[in-house]
From TrEMBL:
Organism: Planotetraspora silvatica
Keywords for this protein: NADP, Oxidoreductase
Coiled coil: none
UniProt-recorded name of the protein: Enoyl reductase (ER) domain-containing protein
Entries under PANTHER family matching the protein: ENOYL REDUCTASE (ER) DOMAIN-CONTAINING PROTEIN, QUINONE OXIDOREDUCTASE PIG3-RELATED
Length: 365
């Protein structure tokens, strides 16, 4: 680390609950602890979590906080206990969600560094670009946490919102990597419906126009689907998708779940009553909990997430689960804030929005 810069100009928030737009903030280059990897960042991508943290600061961080948790780049230094990656390796990683990310306010001229836990850092195959590698970690791990080990070969699976960041990867994972028999999805816009179909969904409904629960009942001869994975974070969707699970099936939700989506107040949700009427299981998967309740991040959880990162690269290289990057933006406060605003307002982004943090490094592959 001898000739490395001491500080860089990151993008994040400098006041508690400051919200959008984000700000440029000069911060020290982080130092990796024993089991962390320091990454010189080439590319990143946008996730709704980033505007939610800027709005609500619910991890209780003391600002300034640099955002940009999805990372692809080159290893600049490793902690003493790190195995499997070395200085100079091209990697994909997810930064710890209770720490800082890697967006730089340099318009693509690079200069940013972020640390990631070594179990969330994997070597990037040369056939996967930095941009695509950076579009995967958070959304892929979310889909993986919901579906891996839960989808049986031949199962009928419903993933609402198959044009979303998590949704389009979940559809591909179920249909192409986990051998589901039938994958059903939905979208509220023609382009989302197209992306869900391109991702491998066999049937895609328009959730704004169709009565999806009735359509799915017809498709499955009144039985319902074996498994729902709802990553829409939307109460209206939760209430509707719960009605599509078969008796004894599983309803898997990403995040804090029904009644809590605003994080500000609890609302009444009919989901548990609907599921109880079907003897169906309600399962929550939540990446954030590993970082808000560190006791959850035991050896088994670390191993599971590491397996997820390995498979993200393996399946991307094989063309099984490939991110759809609908927009690529330079790493500026304005472009990142505009992209996050479109995620917040809905109806703008499709698949993933990538951020090129270091144009020269990212052009390497
Ligand atoms: N806690 C965790 O572990 C964790 C991890 C990752 C993500 N998340 C959360 O998960 C959510 C999704 O993330 P993302 O990156 O996939 O966001 P995204 O790209 O904005 O996708 C949201 C999707 O939801 C769909 N949708 C909205 N309302 C719907 C409804 N009523 N019925 C069916 N689909 C509906 C949208 O479809 P149209 O655009 O077609 O309307 C869109 O495809 C975010 O709130 C994020 O913060 C949580």
């Amino acid at each position: 680390m001898a000739d490395m810069k001491q500080t860089f100009l990151g993008v994040g928030y400098t006041r508690d609950r400051a919200g959008l737009p984000l700000e440029a903030v000069r911060v020290p280059v982080p130092r990796p602890t024993a089991d962390e990897v320091l990454i010189r960042v080439a590319a990143s991508s946008l996730n709704p979590l980033e505007y939610k943290l800027a709005d609500l600061n619910f991890m209780g961080r003391t600002p300034p906080v640099v955002l940009g948790f999805d990372l692809a780049g080159v290893v600049a230094a490793v902690g003493r206990d790190v195995e499997g990656v070395a200085v100079g390796d091209e990697v994909a990683a997810m930064a710890g969600l209770n720490g800082d990310g890697g967006w730089a306010a340099t318009g693509g001229d690079g200069g940013s560094y972020a640390v990631a836990p070594c179990f969330l850092t994997v070597r990037k195959p040369t056939s996967v670009s930095f941009r695509d590698a950076a579009a995967l970690p958070m959304c892929f791990l979310s889909a993986f946490a919901g579906l891996y080990g839960a989808v049986q070969a031949g199962a009928t699976v419903y993933v609402p919102g198959g044009g979303g960041g998590v949704g389009h990867l979940a559809v591909q994972m179920a249909a192409r990597a986990l051998d589901a028999g039938t994958v059903i999805s939905s979208g509220g816009r023609p382009q989302s419906i197209t992306l869900a179909r391109q991702s491998g969904a066999h049937f895609v409904f328009d959730y704004k126009r169709d009565d999806v629960a009735v359509e799915i009942a017809e498709l499955t001869h009144g039985r319902g689907v074996d498994l729902v994975f709802d990553a829409t974070y939307n109460e209206q969707s939760f209430a509707e998708t719960a009605k599509t699970v078969r008796r004894g099936g599983s309803w898997i939700v990403l995040g804090v779940g029904p009644g809590r989506t605003t994080r500000l107040a609890e609302t009444h949700s009919p989901v548990d009553a609907t599921l109880a009427g079907r003897g169906a299981r309600h399962v929550n998967v939540n990446l954030l909990r590993y970082f808000s309740e560190p006791a959850m991040l035991d050896g088994e959880a670390r191993g599971f997430l590491q397996r997820g990162m390995d498979l993200a690269m393996e399946w991307a290289a094989k063309g099984l689960v490939v991110p759809h990057v609908s927009q690529t933006v330079d790493s500026t406060v304005e472009a990142i804030s505009t992209g996050l605003r479109s995620l917040k307002e809905g109806g703008g982004a499709l698949g993933k929005i990538a951020v090129i943090v270091d144009r020269d490094l990212a052009a390497g592959t």
